[in-house]
Amino acid sequence: MKAIVTWIAKANGGSMQYQIGDHLRPGDIVLMHFRPEFQDDFHAFLDAMNAQKLHTELLENWLQ
Fold first, then answer.
1. Which long-range contacts (CB under 8 A, 24 or more apart) does 45-53 make?
2. Which of 20, 27, 29, 63 has its CA 20 to 30 A from that of 3?
């Protein structure tokens, strides 16, 4: 095993849920699933990300 990846927030049911705090922070990993409400989940994620002036990066760029 090379890495274990866990998430700190998830987009679920069209809203964001956080394990710590009430907003996204730099470096947070967000869990999302491809299910019927994905579009609502994705918009909730984009709103949360933009509210904190964050941007996305590929996880693979951070794993050795």
1. 45/11, 45/16, 48/9, 48/16, 48/23, 48/24, 49/24, 51/23, 51/24, 52/23, 52/24, 52/25
2. 20
pLDDT at 62: 87
pTM of the model: 0.87
Per-residue confidence band for 2, with pLDDT thresholds at 50, 70 and 90: confident
Task: Determine the Cα–Cα distance for residues 60 and 23; give it in Å rounded to an integer.
Answer: 23
- DSSP secondary structure letter of residue 63: -
Contact 28, 6 (CB under 8 A): no
**What's the rounded mean pLDDT across residues 16-42?**
96
Joined together, the tokens standing for residue 12 give: 């679920």
